[in-house]
Amino acid sequence: MSAARPFTSLRTLAALAALPLLLTACGYGSESTDDGKKSEVAAGAEKLSVDQVKIGYFPNLTHATALVGVQEGLIQKELGGTTIKASTFNAGPSEIEALNAGAIDIGWIGPSPAINGYTKSGGKNLRIIGGSASGGVKLVVNPKKIKSLKDVKGKKIATPQLGNTQDVAFLNWIAEQGWKVDAESGAGDVSVVRTDNKITPDAYKSGSIDGAWVPEPTASKLVADGGKVLLDESTLWPDKKFVITNIIVSQKFLREHPDVVEAVLRGSVRTNEWINANPGKAKESANEALKELSGKALPADVLDPAWKSVTFLDDPLASTLNTEAQHAVTAGLLEKPDLKGIYDLRLLNKVLKADGKPGVDDAGLGAK
Length: 368
Prior knowledge:
Layout: H1 10-16, E1 32-34, E2 52-57, H2 64-71, H3 74-79, E3 83-89, H4 92-101, E4 106-109, H5 111-120, E5 126-135, E6 137-141, E7 156-159, H6 165-176, E8 191-194, H7 200-206, E9 211-215, H8 218-224, E10 228-232, E11 243-250, H9 251-256, H10 258-277, H11 279-294, H12 300-308, E12 310-312, H13 318-331, H14 346-354
Parallel strand pairs: 2-3, 2-4, 7-8, 7-9
Antiparallel strand pairs: 1-3, 4-11, 5-11, 5-12, 6-9, 6-10
């Protein structure tokens, strides 16, 4: 089975030495923290096959299924007497490392770290067991410097990190314009500036970048600072849908505790139902969770547009993950991977069937 392969130059190896994985999720660092959320277990609730399930996610609106599901007790309700221990992460590599070490059992994570984690382990560490969110990624620019897509050429555009999901998408878009950029250095017809999301708004205000291809809520923060949305990435995909957040599980935990995995998936499905039926309340719940985790809620001029641009759904949109992997190959960031077996959607489809909903497809990449 092929694995992700770093560039072979010494300069690249040095640059990547600080990255636990080549492909990473957008985030604000690499440390994890216990989110401090206490599971409220109903009196007399019966435990499943394990006392506690350890879940991980990002303090990010694209992970709102987990934020809201924990905040509102919707996931805990399905677990009965089995309690949740929740941890939050600020980057994909640390979450994958936690999964590999057994520090978490189930996690919400972006497509690139899921792909890289799977290929680096030879397909032995994780499975994608469900979807969570689509969309929420935009190209936001300084309207004084960039008035049309063709004006992006020659400008400095930020992405969150070398090889992360948005970096790959932007490199692919650049190639489709017929422009040339060295994926490793970011130099070329467009200067791709890898910038931590928490720094990007300040970099934009200082003029050191002319725009950014970033996820929410960073995109809406830039708009609040005077930026203009030049392109919504969803417009580049069939049906305007592409995976931004998956649900993964360690293969060991899936084998040993399928009842717990099914309960978490049922909680995720119930949460997405609630989010879509109560968007206003769900938005407030997610923002309250972010406030508890970060100490600061998002202002309305950032929260409202950011929330509208993310779609919450159970379908992992498997065909788009495969396409994203091919984009990474084209950019030179990934050797052609064998993703056969990365999905196991049997429990999700069982939950959906019980709810009278149509099943979801693994695009031929399912486990046997």
